[in-house]
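Researcher: I'd like a structural prediction for the single chain below. Treat it as a standalone chain; there are no partners to consider.
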Amino acid sequence: MSTFIHSDFLLQGDTAKRLYHDYASILPIVDFHNHLSAEEIYLNKQYENITQAWLSCDHYLWRAMRSNGVDEHYITGAASDHEKFQKWCETVPYLIGNPIYHWCHLELKKYFDLDLVIKPENCEKIWLHCNEKLKQDSHRFQQLLMDSNAQSLCTTDDPLCDLTFHEKLKASGFAVQVLPTFRADSLLEVEDTYSFNNLLDKLTLKTNTEIKCFASYANALSLRVAYFAKHGCRLSDLGLKTVEFANYTSAELNNTFDKIKSNRPLSAIEIAQFKTATFKVLGELYHQNNWSMQLHIGVLTNVNKRRLEALGGGTGFSVMSDNGIAKNLSQLLSMLDEQRQLPQTIVYCLNPKDSPVLGSIIGAFQDSDAQPGKIQLGSAWWFNDHKAGMEKQLQDLASLGALGRFVGMLTDSRSVLSFSRHDYFRRILCNLIGSWVDCGELPQDEQLLKQSIENICYLNAKKYFQFSKSV
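Model: Treating it as a single chain, here is the predicted structure.
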């Protein structure tokens, strides 16, 4: 048996250990951005085996297996779950230094009380042990969430979603607060006018309104935001592949809308104008509803055309973009701030080169008339949520802003087992701050350290999102 994952994992020095064990480890979790299914939570899903829990929907793991030369048959193909798990166990030894290596071993320890290292020799023992656990009620979806010490979580939902299962969850009295998030990407993706017209048709039916110009489109959006607000929504989310900004007039917007309705191609400036205007409408609605606006910036999606055609989108073939963001993002935020309509905002970058850029931008839009930390540099995201990436994000924020106001970590995952990533983050945070204390960069002031750890891991998020006030 291995003791690879032990109580002091990633903690170097007595200060780091004390901060983690005395403060961070016992705090509840506020997971304000994930891709869990409200339906699966409500139905209290039970995984049949560890392959379904780990490999069924996680493109992080799929990419890793491809990097190890595993045939697609054993990744997203028709191979049996047992065969897929065998290929996964063959892959893991080659992932040293990858956060997946840490995550999966943390999950084995936390949820299955298993200390085995993942490798081919241990494949059958892990398979049998985990599958036996997964048969038990203790490993159904809802109990796993409660055992994770989750207090509140926010799913990611299409603007046209009817939120039926959020209603059912609330009525069921489930101990964990599950709230929707308004994911607005499709409302700006106007490049393909045919697809966008399909969206408009659905939006027309959902809102029972006639959408014939930009103003009526904005009105329909307000109705959907109101619907989400009625169901307890506290956050929005928007993925910006590129950050675009262009000034516009009402006449220009209506002309663009006419072209959209008639399926005529749009120019680059018309697309930028439409996106800017829609961003403004949404930002104002979020501000009016006291929501937080999340901006995920810099994904270049589905770059492998052959694989896209064979497997579809969202299967592990997106990459970091290297487009410039500073000027246009500043203009978007300033446009809302000028009318005092800028909502609480969290900005995430996929390219780590942009972390200091965003760290400087958030400082330009903090509002002393609102609340501390109104504009946030989001946690290390996707290709950055490894130890070095988390440390860089924390150090960039500490260098350029107020680390003590940071709202902390999230899972951004489709797997309930991914809540171990909060523990991963908390260990890294405590180790970083502990190292600052041990080398004399911070005072050995227990009140300061306790406050900092508790705020970053839990209290800041709880106060920032005001979940307790949700209907």
